[in-house]
Amino acid sequence: MPHEAMNAQQVAAYLHIDAREVLKLASRGQIPCRKIQGQFQFRKGLIDHWMESRMHTLAPRQLAGIEKGVTAHHGEDHAELEVCPLIPPEGLAVPLRARTRDGVLRDLVELAEAAGLVYGRAELLDEVRRREDLCTTGLIPCVALPHPRHPLPYDIAESFIVVGSAPGGLPFGAEDGLLTRLFFLICCKDERTHLHVLARLMRILHRREDIDRLLDAETPDELREMLEVLEAALVPEP
């Protein structure tokens, strides 16, 4: 639940980091929290958004730790959650037809709708646009990870990812100012699934040479096969 209250120890376990680091961040005002009767208190939804905004800066081992922390906090139903099975058979477009940011978002939502995964197409597209207006999801070189700001459990049939490749690239507001060529629309039924999936995708996309291998795919089947190869090669967190 996004308004779930957490203490420093619970945040540390959730994110798989040391509790002393959480307290240090809190005392410096570098993590969203408030102090009540001398104790720092955190809201899960704010922690999720804070972590999402800085996840692209983390090392693979830290990202694997987030996966492990989310799993431990919510049970074994997330223990084997993988990215590739969330992509439906019709969920890859190579190449994308769109040439603008809004066109990409529209095409990705339509791709998910065609796969029977979307109940409220207009509502989902509106939420994805709002999230992109708030802050670009083009945080990785050549890659964007658009998604709603909050889970939409009643507008989608199940958690899913759809993927599009635009070989020539297009302007998407990327932090580095470069054109974006690969897009993953992430739609999850709940925040914990979203955080887990985002951390795992960041691990898959951590190395530029692996992104280039995905960009070299000329068909949806080739793109899916390369994603499966890269996910299978992930090193488990000890």
Give an overview in words.
The protein is α/β, with parallel strands linked by helices. It folds into 2 domains: 5-57, Multidrug-efflux Transporter Regulator, Chain: A, Domain 2, CATH 1.10.1660; 84-232, 3-Layer(aba) Sandwich (Mannitol-specific EII, Chain A). The chain is built from 9 helices and 7 strands; from the N terminus they run βααββααβααβββααα. The strands form 2 sheets. It has a 4-stranded mixed beta sheet. It has a 3-stranded antiparallel beta sheet with strand order 1-3-2.
Question: Class of the largest domain, according to the CATH hierarchy?
Answer: Alpha Beta
| Percent range for β-strand residues | 5-15%
- Count every helix, treating DSSP H or I runs of 4 or more residues as helices: 9
- How is the biggest beta sheet arranged? 4 strands, mixed
The radius of gyration over CA amounts to: 18 Å
CA-based shape:
globular
In CATH terms, the superfamily of the largest domain is Mannitol-specific EII, Chain A
Work out the count of structural domains.
Answer: 2
Amino- and carboxy-terminal Cα gap? 28 Å
* Sequence stretches where pLDDT stays below 50 over 5 or more residues: 73-78
User: How do the strands line up in the largest sheet?
Assistant: 4-6-7-5
Series of secondary-structure elements, N-terminal to C-terminal? EHHEEHHEHHEEEHHH
Percent of residues in helices comes to 40-55%
Look up the CATH topology of the largest domain.
Answer: Mannitol-specific EII, Chain A
Number of strands: 7
Q: Give me the secondary-structure category.
A: alpha/beta
The CATH architecture of the largest domain would be 3-Layer(aba) Sandwich
> For the residues shown, what is the average pLDDT?
90
